[in-house]
Amino acid sequence: MPIRTINPFVTSSSLATSPSDALNEKTPISMPKSSAIRNNRLSQFFSTSPKSKNFDTTLHVASPHRAGFRPPSPQINMPTLSLPTINLTTATGEKSKTEERPMTLFQPPSPAEVRRIARQHAAFGPIGSQSHRYSSRFVGDDFPDPIEDEPPYYFLITTYISYLILIAFGHVRDFFGKRFRREHYKHLQARDGYAPLNSDFDNFYIRRLQLRINDCFRRPVTGVPGRFITLLDRTSDDHNISFKLTGTTTETLNMSSYNYLGFAQSEGECADAVEAATRKYGVSFASTRGDAGTSELHLDVEDLIAKFVGKESAMIFSMGFVTNATAFPALVGKGSLIISDQLNHSSIRFGSRLSGAVIDMFKHNDMRDLERVLRERISQGQPRTHRPWKKILVAVEGLYSMEGTMCNLPGLIALKKKYKFNLFVDEAHSIGGLGPKGRGVCDYFGVDPSEVDILMGTFTKSFGANGGYVAGDKKLIDKLRVTNAGTIFGETPSPPILVQIASALKIISGELVPGQGEERLQRLAFNSRYLRLGLKRLGFIVYGHDDSPIIPVLLYHPAKLPAFSHEMLKRKIAVVVVGYPATPLISSRARFCVSAAHTKDDLDRLLAACDQTGEILQLKFSSGIAGGAAPIRDGLVNEEEREFGKMAAKGVKPLVVPPRWKLEDVIRSGVQDVKVPLT
Ligand SMILES: Cc1ncc(COP(=O)(O)O)c(C=O)c1O
Fold it and tell me: How many A from CA of 505 to the centre of ligand 1?
C-alpha cells in the first residue's frame, strides 16, 4: 500500500477556496454588489459544511474579475466545467497526437480531487490568515482566579422556580402513576418485602427532568468528529424514551468534540501511518501488558511520552479512565491521605476510593482551602491512632472540562514545598491543549516538570486516539508496572492506536512535518481566546480562564438547555449542553470545545448564531466584571471622572458597562484584541 504524503496544510493555488466558498452551493456566478457581500457574510454562517451532499456537483474557481473578493466564490456546475487549458503541442503548430497526454500549464482538479479536498477541509479547515495564531503561556507570579460573573437575581429565582415546578409535577405524576398505572411503576415500588433498588433521586431526575430533553444528548453521529460532524437524524414517538433513525443526516459545525489539536482526521500523516501499522501488526496484540502484550511500539510510545512531558519514564494504558482507576491503588493505600479538588473527574474519585486511602476534598482551585485541609489533616494525623500519614497525595486536573479553569500550578507548588506532599496532575484536557509547545500545564506556567511528582494524561482528546499514561521518575513507574491491576488484567493498547499517538506526538514536537504541530498549537490558542472574547463582548456569562479551549456559556434555566441546543442545531451547529448532575443544579450551561481545526470564519459563524440565540433566549446578562466591557467613553462628566479616579486609586475597576457589543464590532476588532488580556 503506497503511503500517501498529503499535507493537509498545503493547498494548491487553484484549490485555495476557503471552506466557506465551498459552502455556498447556490451562489450565482455574477459579481455581487458590496452590500450584498456584507449580507451574505452573515447568512453564509448558517450554510452547510463543505462535505454537504451536493458538493460533488459543484466546483469553485478563482476568477480574475474577482480579485480582492474571496468568499463566496462563483460556482460552476461539473458538466460545464471545462476550464481553458493551454495545450503546448497545438500551440507550436504540430499535429496533435491524440494518444499522447496533452501537456498543460493548468489542469483543473478532477471531481474526485475536489471531493477529497472538501473532505479534508471538513475535518481540518485551512487557516484564513497567519494573524490567526497565538502562543499561550502564563506570565507573572500569582495565577488569578477567573472572575465569575453572576446573572441578575431574577434569573436565579426563576431558575429555582423552574426546577420546583418540574419536581412538583414529577411527584404528582409519580403519585398517580403508582396508583393507577401499576404495571409501569412496579420497578419503583416495594414488592414481596423487597426494597425497590431503582427508586432514588437520580432515577426520578432522569425520568421526570432529563427525559424531556433527551433528544439533546447522545445524538448519534457518523464519520470523523473533526471541524464538521455528521449527525444521524432521528425522531421519537414516545417522548424521547426511544428514537428511530430517519435515514437522513445533517452536517454541522462541530463545537462538541475534545478534538483540541484537530487530529480527528481520516487523512494525513497520522492516518497513513496508522494504516501502514495496521497492515503490519494487525488490530490487536490480544493480550495484557503483563503477558504477551508488550511490543516495540509500546516501548517507543512510552519513551516518546516521557520525553514529551519531561519525565524520566512513562507507562501507557488502553483506557484513560482505567489509568486513574488503577494508578491510585498502586500508588497509595491504607494509612495514606488523598486530597482531591472538589471538581476532579470521576476516574480520580473512583481510583482514590479503590486505593483504601483516606480521602478529603478542597474547594475547586482554592489554595487557601487546600492549605486549611493540609494543616488540619497533618496536625491530626491518621484517624484514631493519630500517627503521621504514610503518604499525602494532592490530586488535581490540569484543565477542568466543565469549568474551563486551569489548576493553579504555581500555588500548588508553593504549598507542596511548604507541606511536603506528592502532587498528581491529571492532564487529560491540558496535554496538547496548553502551553506554547503543547506540553500541558508545566509548559503553560513555565514550571519544571520535575516539580510535579506524577503527570497523568489521556490520548482521547488532543491526540485523536485512546488510552492514557502516567509519567514520573523511573523508580516510581517501575513500581507502577508491577503493582498495577491494569497491567495484569487490562487489554494492552492496540497497534493502530499506538501509531496514532506516536505520529501525533511527533507532529506536535516538530519531528514529523515541521511547522504543522506549531500551527495546530497556535491556532488552538488563537481560536480559544477569540471565541471567549467574542462571547464576553456579546454579553454572555462565560466561565474559565482566558487560554482555556473549553468555553462554558451559562444558561441557568433548565428549559434553556434544549432551547439553546435546538436553536444551534437549526443553524447547523452541534453543541454540548450540560446540566445536573455534571454541573450544580443552578448552573446549566452550553460548553463549546474549540479546536485547531476550526477557522476564524467558523467561529464567526458560531458568534453570529450565539448573538441571535442570545437575543431569542435572553442569555445576554453579563455585568461586564469578567471582561468584554466597552472601553470607558471619552468626555466623562465631572462626577463620573471623580468616581473613576477614586475607584482607580483603590485598584478597583470602576464604571463597568455591561458589554452588549454588536456582532460586526466583535468580529472587526477580535483578531487584534485577543492578543492582549481579555478584560
Ligand atoms: C480529567 C479526566 N481524566 C480522565 C478521563 C478518562 O479518560 P478517557 O475518557 O480517555 O477514558 C477523563 C475523560 O474525559 C477526564 O476528563
Answer: 19
